[in-house]
Amino acid sequence: MRLRHFGQLPYDDVYQAMQRYTAQRDGSARDELWLLQHPAVFTQGQAGKPEHLLLTGDIPVVQSDRGGQVTYHGPGQIVGYVLFDIKRADYGVRDLVNAIENAIIDVLAGYGISARARPDAPGVYVGDAKIAQLGLRIKRGCSYHGLSLNVDMDMEPFLRINPCGYQGMEVICMRQLLGDKTPGIDEVETKLAAAIADQLNTEITDSVPATLALPY
Questions:
Q1: Smallest Cα–Cα separation from 179: which of 152, 148, 149?
Q2: What does the pLDDT look like over 21-54, one tens digit per residue?
């Protein structure tokens, strides 16, 4: 798996790059993991319902082809896009979801945060509060989109939506649990990449340093 670190990039640009890569890749193409942040944006999944957008204000809403309902991305949140050939790896979609959730749980455990997955609602939770979101699309046997992990961010925008379609769901970030002990984004990204590779039974063979240039 190739790991690509990006800085902060607009959602639309990265979304289109993921689509292009997935459309053009063949059976020999490398799996890739993209780690980055987005400027403030709400994204609506394929099943998204307008009633879950409460008061979006000045934050744009972008329609996406991932699964799920509405969520928020913003600075201080790690977004990970998993471009993985599940057909080649003989993975089911549920296997991929479990692997991503377990990777996040392992990373949080390393910081003393006890987290869990829920069978009824994809994502990772601390108690009943959501700390990481999942949304995937499978096309031609390959995945794109992925996860977002709330590290150290402004949580107010989550109050403007029903997160992932759940009215009143509490959403938290690592800063609220760890305070001044909250690690930096770069550190969490490094641990998350290693955990995802481990859960997917692969290894990161090369890592592309942070860049604002999209590869596809």
A1: 152
A2: 999 999 999 999 999 999 999 999 998 899 999 9
